[in-house]
Amino acid sequence: MSEPARGPVRDVAIVAFGQSEHVPDSAETSEVEMLMPVLHDVLARTGLKARDIDFTCSGSSDYLAGRAFSFTMALDGVGAWPPISESHVEMDGAWALYEAWVKILTGGADTALVYAYGKSSPGDLREVLTRQLDPYYVAPLWPDSVALAALQAQALIDAGHTDARELATIGAHRRGRPDAAPGRQVVGPLRTGDCPPVVDGAGDTARRLADRPAWIRGLDHRIEAHALGVRDLTDSPSTRLAAEHAGAFDAPVDVAELHAPFTSQEVVLRRALRLDAPGSTVRINPSGGALAANPVMAAGLIRLGEAAAAVQRGDADRALAHATSGPCLQQNLVAVLEGER
After folding, report:
1. Which of 16, 24, 32, 195 is at a distance of 20 to 30 A from 111, taking alpha carbons?
2. Among 301, 295, 260, which residue's Cα sits nearest to residue 93?
3. What pLDDT digit, counting tens, does each position of 273-315 carry?
4. Does residue 285 come out as left (phi exceeding 0), alpha (psi in the -120 to 50 range) or beta?
């Protein structure tokens, strides 16, 4: 006999968010130099000092840096002396926020600093991301992230869920250029306007002291099967399940920040999250989303930060944030944020 579900015993909120300028190439800037201004800005806005942070958690990828334990160098930007309580996830910083959320809920910390960063420019990002694939059957074929997204886009078109015109419209609007042409073909049917830019950047969140905190009312993440051949690429059951457990369907949201690096993936997410319902007034990706700037390992955390910022500004009373990792929306995290009413 199962016990009834219980809600969080503590209220947790995002109270400050910052991000660096996203640039095509930051070769002259180290990870530490990229992070320090963001970290200092967020701490200054909360009135907190480094010694006030009970727990620090980061998200990044050694594959991007090309060296093992690269995240330890980034700790210089936080300051690891006197000794701090610190953890790291080898994926998008949204999952670092999840770990910090659990840490606070369980009483292991009262304040947390979460940050993520990604420098995609030093190597070939499309080749690097093939290392996420099944090492026995898929990775030896070297299908890159754009080719896999193109398979997903074609599956959506074949199923009648979208067409090239809708994808072009999504890409143009997310980049703030409604009249822009879709660009040259990259991997059919995807064109340059359907794909994310390669940029370097960093994001950060901290908990405490804000005039209007963005309270985390629900947070959950799920994963699809690793084998692409057993998945329906036109749907995202893991996103839907995470949304259900996070309470996303309990009431309408005003803003939805979706981590959709490709236009076709936004179509999948809108359907999975029921954002296309008749009469819906939800504003999707007012920040531009990952199609405007997609710093790998930070773009998902930035979606949570942008949703929280919308709540803090009073632009939304209830916001949904989504983050993804892996090929074709393999892993998905959904958060529901609310302001004081």
Report:
1. 32
2. 301
3. 999 988 889 999 999 999 999 999 999 999 999 999 999 999 9
4. left
What distance lies between CA 21 and its chain's CA centroid? 17
- The tokens for 146 are 């754009």
In angstroms, the first-to-last Cα distance of the chain is 37
Task: Answer yes or no: are the C-beta atoms of 125 and 296 closer than 8 Å.
Answer: yes
Nearest alpha-carbon partner for 115 in 206, 25, 26: 206
184 burial class (0-12, 13-18, 19+ CB within 10 angstroms)? exposed
- Residue-wise pLDDT for 135-177, tens only, equals 888 989 899 999 999 999 999 999 999 999 999 999 998 988 8
Q: 205 near 16, Cβ under 8 Å?
A: yes
User: What sign has the CA pseudo-torsion 272, 115, 60, 143?
Assistant: positive
Q: Are 38 and 18 in contact (CB under 8 A)?
A: yes
Distances (CA, A) of 170 to 99, 184, 227, 241: 32, 16, 28, 25
